[in-house]
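Re: that backbone. Tokens:
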């Protein structure tokens, strides 16, 4: 049974679906949910933007996500599920894996962005969900469709 469920949240449609899936799993297993997001700017942005701008963007992101995560916490609490949230300042993939291991989560639920290989090559972006899938020590549920 999955008692401790970590949901990696980025406000995308698949992340929203991941929250819904986690709620259903938590209801069935009488589990708890932790919502996690990262405000760390991707490396390609950090390499071209001034440090002050990066700091401002990360602070704005922190405030934005704090508000959104609070709304989800309220929604999840109404379902009778214990819930918490955390905002990290680490690269998303590594941060998710580290936090899940440190806090001994039973399951990670997250969306998949499904970037094409050409887009990944051009932008230098790796797949967070692929990183988590390859490095997590607990089961990972990847939400591939918001339908």
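Recovered sequence:
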């Amino acid at each position: 049974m999955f008692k401790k469920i970590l949901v990696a949240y980025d406000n995308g449609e698949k992340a929203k679906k991941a929250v819904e899936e986690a709620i259903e799993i938590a209801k069935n297993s009488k589990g708890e949910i932790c919502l996690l997001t990262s405000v760390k700017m991707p490396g390609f942005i950090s390499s071209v933007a001034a440090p002050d701008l990066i700091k401002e963007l990360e602070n704005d992101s922190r405030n934005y996500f704090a508000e959104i995560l609070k709304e989800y916490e309220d929604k999840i609490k109404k379902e009778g599920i214990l819930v918490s949230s955390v905002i990290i300042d680490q690269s998303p993939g590594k941060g998710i894996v580290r936090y899940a291991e440190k806090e001994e989560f039973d399951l990670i639920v997250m969306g998949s962005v499904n970037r094409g290989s050409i887009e990944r090559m051009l932008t230098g972006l790796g797949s967070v969900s692929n990183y988590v899938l390859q490095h997590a020590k607990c089961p990972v549920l990847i939400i591939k469709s918001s339908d």
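The CA atoms of residues 34 and 68 lie 14 Å apart. Confidence is low (pLDDT under 50) at residues 119-125.
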